[in-house]
Design goal:
The strands form three sheets. The protein has a four-stranded mixed beta sheet with strand order 7-6-5-8. Strands 1-4-9 form a three-stranded antiparallel beta sheet, covered by helices on one side. The protein has a two-stranded antiparallel ribbon with strand order 2-3. Helix content is 16%, strand content 14%. By secondary structure, it is of the alpha+beta class. It binds calcium ion. Calcium ion (CA) binds at residues 83, 204-205, 207-209, 211, 243.
Length: 279
Amino acid sequence: MSVRVLLAATVFSVLLNMSPLFAADQPPQALLTPQTGKDGAPMVVVQAGSFPMGVPHGDRDGGRDEYPRHDVFVDTFFIDKFEVTNGRYLEFVKATGHRVPQNSKNPTRNLWQGDTISDSLADRPVINVDWFDAEAYCAWAGKRLPTEAEWEKAAKGTADRRFPWGNVEPTLKHLNFNQQWVGEKTLMPVGSYELGKSPFGAYDMAGNVWEWVNDWYDARYYEKSPAKNPKGPDTGTKKVIRGAGWQNETPTVRIFTRVDSDPTIRNESTGFRCALDAK
Ligand SMILES: [Ca+2]
């Protein structure tokens, strides 16, 4: 190989390696380090760009509120790698005096003893928190709840898929689902399912606990939502929860499942994770 050919090959190779720097809507990943909030919870980067929101092309299931499939552009943001744990929530309660998680309808499903938790509960997702508790935690941590579109993109990646890991039907190696209540062991420690993580590296986006997102629920929102950074309706009576929980079966744990919930309800199936703008 002549020097000239070698030089050309080297230049070509360097250009190839740099090509992500020039790709539209894709910030150079190496230069973007995920930040963390005050809670120290690890976060992952979700790069700017479009993704298909709603029921994938060719699939005929899903609720009416999950149609039409539509492309949504979302700016770069960070999202918690894991659901917020009881251990982190306890730090928030201690720091702020915020009320403890409590299931007012079914006290047998409380897992906290006052403001004390067992060691084995610390890494499991917090439950018995309403939308306002979730919002308060994220604000304390210097973060915010993800929008519904951000949540779906973090779970799905940039192309159609039914589950965070792809289109393979769910098994107990992918997620915590299809369970009966047995106390704290109903919930799995966050990040237990390597096989179930999303294309952006977020864990438990399907199963373990449902997750509050910021948006008000509107069954017809997809018919009119803005194509860029949709934030949900301005007002409403119900908030959206996403991702399904430990008690749900296969159809419900699909990424695109949308469910509405009274924002003041505190139950044993719903927790949350936080997001953060990329600065
Ligand atoms: Ca979850």
